[in-house]
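Board notes (copied after class):
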Amino acid sequence: MGIDNMPKPLLSICCVTYNHENYIRECLNGFVTQKTTFHFEILVHEDASTDNTAQIVKEYESKFPHLFRCVYQTENQFAKQNTLVNILFPMSQGKYIALCEGDDYWTDPYKLQKQVDFLEANPGYSICFHNAEIIDEGTQLSEGLFVGLQKQQYVQLNSSREVLPYEIMIDWIVPTASCLFRSNLIDYKKINSNNFVFGDIALFLSLTAKGKVFYLNEIMSVYRKSLRGARFSNDGEYKNGRWERHYNELTRLCPDKELEFVINYFKCEVLIYSRAFFFYDLNWITSYQKHKAFKKTFSQMNKSNNAIPLNIKKRMLNKLTEFNNSVNHDQRKSISVKRYAYVLFKKSFSFIRHFITAKT
């Protein structure tokens, strides 16, 4: 059967890759070795890598022309647009979409079949995901499971079950390469925003507004732990307000009281951090504004009437209180140090002025 006569795919695999020459073969092998009763397509966005990633993708595209449709950029698009939302998703022909970045990979050849079978049999669900093994990029050693009792603080997943929207957010239990969802439920307008620090969480939460979420208690992929998220952890992201905008945007994605409570928790953390950064920069007006915003959000959390278990709510509120008090204590110490330095400077200046006056 020629390429033009291939049946329409039931599923589209969407993969974004950049400078993954050491990992992309493992990733693409995980795609082409999938055993399914349906046709699928593989969409790859190669973002102008400076290594041999593009050549490797072209090799697979040449070998499996009936599966691959690829985009090769000549200029990197990462800072310009969300390439999943703007390029790969509109290209997809499948009823379902599966995600996997170029440095992660799938380990179960029946992964797609299992997840599609579940969604086909359960139309009330919009998305399903599974567990993954964590591999350290530097040491290449396993660090355990992405979803595990030793990792999660609040959510316990030791069997297949429905997962609530707030549970996705509270402990971040969703490996991106494990997700499979219905393509007709993508809300392009809501998730295509530059305010999101992480686009995948925005996508997943938007899907929870359209249907339920299911966790398959199987290990079917590998998440490669690297420094790829470190670019968002610098002080500038707090000072320019990007994290605040991120959480403000997330609250629009799914009208859920429990989810709003958890988002406010993380927003409070950000406000405490940013308040401290502005304080130490002597920008006390902005620091005070962040403090007022924290108090308002924290008050909303205390008054929130939602179905999150009471013991979890208390733990979260107590953690915020302790964190806020510790930062306040550090700021008070900082004020004392600044006052001491100022007094010392005045004394030193008086002594120097007296010395100069006496000489003359």
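Comment from the instructor: The first strand starts at residue 11 and ends at 17. The mean pLDDT is 90.
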